[in-house]
Amino acid sequence: MEAPNYAQAGGDYFSLAESFQLLAQALASADRSGSLPKQVKLTRMYGPLEIPETNMGLTVASFTVAEVMHAAAQLAPQLANDAWKVVPDNAVPASLQLSGKTVNAAQFLRLMAQACLDPTPDKILKINAVQMFSAATFMYPKNTSMPEQGSGWTFKPAPLRLETTPAHSAAGQ
Predict the structure, then answer these.
(1) Domain total for the chain?
(2) What is the reported pTM?
């Protein structure tokens, strides 16, 4: 399994880095209050600064929604800090600890999405091996090594909002 190229909500498109931050903020709020918020604030996000060579992550593990919420709550303040630093706080971590196990960012993104769909704290979520590279990572020319391709997490489609005009008939002109 590989990471998706981007996320879509209605007519809005979000990069994987933006999706990671939005889901983490929502789950952090749910961890504090017991319910998902109606909205969260999106700040500038960067993709992982480096992607490990062996990036598939765990192949078999399970976590509760409460564990995912708690990990998101620990991570959310860092992701919301968009103050300039040489190594920014608001970059998706390549991997993180979840209940004593190391998961990669794509796996945690998937777990957060599942937790948002059903935020029942004792629900069990199973993890899959997920590659951190998406197809978007390979769609542009590059001269950097694959571990340095975390910027692929910042790609999203450009929203095209074209004005529609009545079609002119060839017979009427």
Answers:
(1) 1
(2) 0.83
